[in-house]
UniProtKB/TrEMBL annotation:
<protein>
    <recommendedName>
        <fullName>Homoserine O-acetyltransferase</fullName>
        <ecNumber>2.3.1.31</ecNumber>
    </recommendedName>
</protein>
<feature type="binding site">
    <location>
        <position position="203"/>
    </location>
    <ligand>
        <name>substrate</name>
    </ligand>
</feature>
<dbReference type="GO" id="GO:0009092">
    <property type="term" value="P:homoserine metabolic process"/>
</dbReference>
<keyword id="KW-0808">Transferase</keyword>
<keyword id="KW-0012">Acyltransferase</keyword>
<dbReference type="GO" id="GO:0009086">
    <property type="term" value="P:methionine biosynthetic process"/>
</dbReference>
<feature type="binding site">
    <location>
        <position position="321"/>
    </location>
    <ligand>
        <name>substrate</name>
    </ligand>
</feature>
<feature type="active site">
    <location>
        <position position="320"/>
    </location>
</feature>
<feature type="active site" description="Nucleophile">
    <location>
        <position position="137"/>
    </location>
</feature>
<comment type="similarity">
    <text>Belongs to the AB hydrolase superfamily. MetX family.</text>
</comment>
<dbReference type="GO" id="GO:0004414">
    <property type="term" value="F:homoserine O-acetyltransferase activity"/>
</dbReference>
<keyword id="KW-0028">Amino-acid biosynthesis</keyword>
<feature type="domain" description="AB hydrolase-1">
    <location>
        <begin position="42"/>
        <end position="324"/>
    </location>
</feature>
<keyword id="KW-0486">Methionine biosynthesis</keyword>
<comment type="function">
    <text>Transfers an acetyl group from acetyl-CoA to L-homoserine, forming acetyl-L-homoserine.</text>
</comment>
<dbReference type="GO" id="GO:0005737">
    <property type="term" value="C:cytoplasm"/>
</dbReference>
<comment type="subunit">
    <text>Homodimer.</text>
</comment>
Length: 343
């Protein structure tokens, strides 16, 4: 299977929820496995903030040969979101009419805009029904929004470490990261590597919300009790920031963090409870005990108001990142959910 994504160009301009228009939209996506003759084996993966369409890479252990979602059994679809930098239209994409990229002028995208592009791709792929849509964090926000919009489309909905509305806490973390990027004077230069130092700092901020106090105590406590500088925790923050700079860009990071802030399934729908009541998919909601960014109370709310939803909680050391790391626990929870669902 190739790691190179397919590219689908929307047949017409995309009018965004804000009223702005993207005249040309490409969506990068990958598929794995084969569609059954009955077309009833589709699993659609919605990815988180800085991921891409190659789900077998970033969700290894849950997706892949011998994993719970094995391409031998499932037809797996994962699309890179608009606003990203992995093949879909984003801030660094060159407008064919002007020959220029938008950079910091890229328009505001909402989660509903991301879902609109998923829906256009689904129609292009001629998939009348999706067995399971799954996502964590920003991916879960997309999945729940899509299930609200199209209740008859999905048989199963799996939501991990996500919410019905992005919290004030989450927005504050995102704004702190954006302030770090905007404080980098190269961000305003509108160049492909603009804002790189700011992005490194932003990632260091984000890590504090992705992990937990206990996780840092276990893995980053300085072993040299006489040290006065160059602490293990400090080098870890710098290293993780540099890793993101090497594979992502500041303009997409700003754009997609703003997208996450817009998430609110109740907007224009008489509130969250009424919106979630529209969902008809069999739903599994998974929380993580140590998640400080999307605490379990947010997943419990989803399960409370989605009709018939099942709630499960993972005991994990890894905080919010547990939804990417704890694949054995997730697989076990999925197995129990599907056995109960189809018993």
């Amino acid at each position: 299977m190739s790691d190179e994504p397919h590219i689908f160009r929307l047949p017409c301009a995309l009018r965004l929820e804000s009223g702005a228009v993207l005249p040309q939209v490409d969506i990068a996506y990958q598929t794995y496995g084969h569609l059954a003759p009955t077309r009833n084996n589709v699993v659609w993966v919605c990815h988180a903030l800085t991921a891409n369409a190659n789900v077998l890479d970033w969700w290894a252990g849950l997706f892949g040969t011998g994993c719970y979602f094995d391409p031998a059994d499932w037809f797996i679809v994962c699309a890179n979101v608009v606003g990203s930098c992995y093949g879909s239209t984003g801030p660094l994409s060159v407008d064919e009419t002007t020959g220029l990229a938008a950079y910091q002028e890229f328009p505001l995208l909402t989660v509903r805009d991301l879902v609109a592009v998923h829906e256009a791709l689904r129609e292009h792929l001629a998939l009348p029904r999706i067995h399971t849509v799954i996502g964590g964090s920003l991916g879960g926000q997309q999945a729940v929004e899509w299930a609200v919009q199209r209740p008859a489309l999905f048989e199963n909905l799996v939501l991990l470490a996500t919410n019905a509305r992005h919290s004030a806490w989450g927005i504050a973390f995102n704004e702190a990261q954006r302030l770090a990027i905007l404080a980098d004077p190269t961000y305003a230069a509108a160049a492909p590597d603009g804002g790189a130092a700011g992005l490194q700092a932003a990632r260091a901020v984000a890590l504090l919300s992705y992990r937990s106090y206990d996780a840092y105590q276990r893995t980053q406590t300085e072993p040299d009790e006489e040290a006065l500088h160059d602490y293990r925790a400090s080098s870890y923050q710098r290293y993780q920031g540099s890793k993101l700079v090497a594979r992502f860009n500041a303009y997409s990071y700003v754009a997609l963090s703003r997208t996450m802030d817009t998430h609110h399934v109740g907007r224009g729908r008489n509130g969250i409870r009424a919106a979630l009541a529209r969902i008809r998919a069999r739903t599994l909601v998974i929380g993580i005990t140590s998640d400080v960014l999307f605490p379990p109370a947010e997943q419990q709310l989803l399960a409370r108001y989605i009709p018939g939803a099942v709630y499960a909680e993972m005991d994990s050391q890894f905080g919010h990142d547990g939804f990417l790391i704890e694949t054995a626990q997730i697989s076990h929870t999925l197995e129990r959910f599907y056995v109960q669902t189809y018993a």
